[in-house]
Amino acid sequence: MGTYFDISYMVRSFPALVGYVHVTLLITLVSALVGILLGCLVAVVRINRIKGISQLLTVYISFTRGTPFLVQLFLIYFGAPEILSHLGISVKGLPPMLFVLIVFTLYLAAYSSEIMRSSIEAVAKGEKEAAFSLGMTSLQAYYRVILPQAFILAIPPLINTVLSVLKGTSLIFNVGIVDIMRKADLMGGNSQRYLELFIDVAVIYGILVFVITQVGRAAERHFDVAHKGNTEKGVEESSVYRNY
After folding, report:
1. Can you give the CATH number for the domain in which 205 is found?
2. pLDDT in tens, 68-112
């Protein structure tokens, strides 16, 4: 057993791999925050059918959802600097991580926009009409009334998308970024103990997925309870006004 599988090496290697978790979390959290905000904006533009922009966004979403993520990563990481250099713009001073963050953010924005679009359309039309009757502008109606309700509906699928991004970070070693996978690959080249190292990697990703899933469920319960509380409060107030 010791010849083919060294559990002591696996245990010793675990802390070294955990030391690169911050790279995975940085990419996941930044792309999640910016991507979801961008996805909300894209969803609102598409719902309101802004001429010209809406069609371009449809092409962008179709391309993102219809092509492998690794192809998108290579296109932006290797292709964007090449195109910019031909335009006379040098990007040699920019950190490689910036291009990786752009890829993941655009990827998550495309998927989250479709999630938010369906969630926005699921909000009762009377909510928007009520907001307008109170004198709100279209922007205020979305910001104060529609998007908060849509976000509550979208939490489960958004968490699944964030988890997909988290697991997708395992591909960034293809462009030279040293993360958990790249570190395991480098250590395996020296020790030839790839099995032990990749089991460590699987355990680390499993822990991260579990933590994010639990955070998502807690957020879902919190916002759902708050939403129900506000709804019940609104019903009670309206009944008091009717009685009055």
Report:
1. 1.10.3720.10
2. 999 999 999 888 888 888 888 887 778 889 999 999 999 999 999
Within a domain: 1: no
Write the CA distances from 103 to 24, 31, 171, integer angstroms: 14, 9, 12
Structure tokens at 141: 């109606």
Predicted TM-score of the model (pTM) = 0.84
Contacts of 39 (CB under 8 A, 6+ apart): 108, 109, 110, 111, 112, 113, 115, 116
Q: What would the two tokens of residue 110 be?
A: 């495309």
Burial class for 103, CB neighbours closer than 10 Å (0-12, 13-18, 19+) = buried
**Rg (Cα) of the chain, in Å, rounded?**
23
Of 98, 103, 99, 207, nearest to 163 (Cα)?
A: 207
Which run of H or E residues covers position 38? helix 21-47
243 token code pair: 């009685």
